């Protein structure tokens, strides 16, 4: 029996193929052929629903290029990821890809300094293949089961969603989550899990978010789902794909911040309106939340558009700046990041940081006199309490 030829793909491609196959980007449920791809790239619609660019598979590499050049209609190709067979594809047709045009459709630019353009250029081949396929990817299946189980457990009928990076989780994110939660039965937080190593590791962000949810929110009202945001969830088309994903996971609503990734910067107002107009054919309610800031006159978090005090009174929740503090080993002020979250993140970022942790704890931190083993996370929490002592300041 003749062995099938192999097509080598990476985890990012596998994850995206699995999303589509599971119907989570419906109405797109398959790889597009040449005619369909050209039509979508021109009209930005697929089967009457907004879709920003063609969904194709064009893996890079000399081996892949050779296989696709000689592929015949009806031929079965094994899909290989990390040296393991993860699925099969029945060839319908192959066709050339204009790499520069493809990058422009996805990102709106071909500038190689753009991180998305750079990453996609490194993995995009010059020949695409269409056809029926099957893949194995347990993460997607598990996500669907967890959401279904939570809905059945709670009887939720109104389900909202937020796409969140939480890099790191800050007070403005918390306010956004509470506001979203106030009018629905269930909130699903799709926690972004990129295929790059930038920012905090996913497990650190997940644990920090769980610390907040488990200790400061009602039980069984919030579910965190890992969201592997591959290249298709990029650039100015991100909102359209996020809306489709949330809808197909069973959500009635999608909550977005004004920059739909953090709460520090705004989309251009006209651009945001244009995107929303394009999303009208997607059957999901999209709500925006304005930027939150800390006002040193109001002494609390406020909506930047309704606070009467000027910008010079506002502290902005700029994720990159907060991240720099943490990467330097500094505890951010509690008005920026909840102390429990800061302690959780710093303990993960700097394990075994202190040579004599227990000795430092007994020397610096008030205690009941009982000798108890203290964790690094607990040490940070107690240290924050000392910072907040005001008698000598």
What's the arrangement of secondary structure elements?
Blueprint: E1 5-8, H1 11-21, H2 34-43, E2 45-46, E3 49-50, E4 57-59, H3 62-69, E5 76-81, E6 84-90, E7 93-96, H4 99-107, H5 115-121, E8 124-130, E9 133-135, H6 138-154, E10 159-164, H7 171-181, E11 186-192, H8 202-216, E12 222-227, H9 238-248, E13 253-257, H10 269-278, E14 285-289, E15 292-295, E16 300-303, E17 314-316, H11 319-327, H12 339-349, H13 357-364, H14 376-387
Parallel strand pairs: 1-5, 10-11, 10-13, 11-12, 13-14
Antiparallel strand pairs: 2-3, 4-8, 5-6, 6-9, 7-8, 15-16, 15-17
Helix pairs in contact: 8-12, 12-14
Mean pLDDT: 88
Structural class: alpha/beta
Categorize the overall geometry: elongated
Number of helices: 14
Helix fraction by DSSP (H/I, runs of at least 4)? 25-40%
Rg result: 24 Å
User: How widely separated are the two ends?
Assistant: 81 Å
Per CATH, the class of the largest domain reads: Alpha Beta
For CATH, the homologous superfamily of the largest domain is named as HUPs
What amount of the residues lies in strands?
15-25%
In brief, what are we looking at here?
The chain is α/β, with parallel strands linked by helices.
List the main descriptive attributes of the protein structure presented here.
393 residues, Rossmann fold, alpha/beta, 14 helices, 5-stranded parallel sheet, 4-stranded mixed sheet, Sulfate adenylyltransferase
Structural description of this entry:
- Helices cover 38% and strands 20% of the residues.
- The protein has 393 residues and is an alpha/beta fold.
- The protein folds into 3 domains: 5-135, Sulfate adenylyltransferase (Roll); 138-294, 3-Layer(aba) Sandwich (Rossmann fold), CATH 3.40.50; 353-393, no CATH class.
- The protein has a 5-stranded parallel sheet, sandwiched between helices. A 4-stranded mixed sheet has the order 1-5-6-9.
């Amino acid at each position: 029996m003749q062995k099938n030829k192999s097509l080598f793909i990476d985890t990012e491609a596998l994850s995206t193929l699995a999303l589509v196959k599971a119907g989570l980007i419906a109405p797109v449920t398959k790889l597009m052929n040449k005619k369909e791809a050209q039509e979508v790239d021109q009209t930005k619609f697929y089967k009457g629903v907004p879709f920003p660019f063609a969904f194709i598979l064009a893996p890079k590499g000399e081996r892949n290029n050779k296989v696709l050049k000689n592929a015949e209609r009806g031929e079965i190709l094994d899909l290989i990821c990390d040296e393991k067979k993860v699925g099969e594809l029945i060839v319908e047709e192959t066709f050339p890809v204009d790499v520069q045009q493809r990058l422009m459709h996805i990102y709106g630019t071909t500038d190689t300094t753009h991180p998305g353009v750079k990453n996609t250029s490194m993995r995009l081949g010059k020949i695409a293949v269409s056809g029926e396929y099957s893949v194995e990817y347990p993460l997607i299946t598990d996500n669907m089961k967890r959401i279904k189980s939570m809905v059945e457990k709670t009887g939720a009928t109104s389900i909202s969603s937020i796409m969140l990076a939480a890099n790191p989780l800050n007070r403005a994110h918390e306010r956004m989550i509470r506001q979203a939660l106030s009018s629905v039965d269930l909130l699903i937080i799709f926690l972004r899990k990129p295929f790059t190593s930038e920012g905090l590791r996913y497990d650190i962000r997940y644990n920090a978010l769980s610390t907040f949810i488990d200790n400061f929110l009602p039980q069984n009202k919030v579910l965190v789902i890992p969201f592997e945001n591959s290249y298709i969830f990029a650039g100015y088309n991100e909102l359209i794909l996020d809306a489709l994903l949330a809808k197909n996971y069973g959500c009635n609503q999608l909550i977005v911040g004004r920059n739909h990734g953090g709460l520090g910067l705004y989309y251009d107002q006209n651009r945001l309106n244009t995107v929303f107009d394009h999303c009208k054919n997607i059957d999901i309610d999209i709500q925006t939340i304005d930027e939150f800031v800390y006002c040193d006159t109001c002494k609390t978090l406020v909506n930047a558009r309704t606070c009467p005090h000027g910008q010079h009174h506002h502290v902005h929740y700029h994720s990159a700046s907060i991240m720099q503090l943490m990467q330097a080993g500094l505890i951010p002020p509690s008005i920026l990041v909840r102390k429990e979250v800061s302690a959780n993140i710093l303990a993960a970022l700097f394990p075994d940081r202190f040579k004599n942790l227990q000795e430092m704890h007994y020397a610096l931190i008030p205690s009941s006199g009982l000798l108890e083993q203290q964790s690094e996370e607990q040490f940070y929490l107690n240290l924050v309490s000392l910072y907040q002592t005001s008698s000598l300041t």
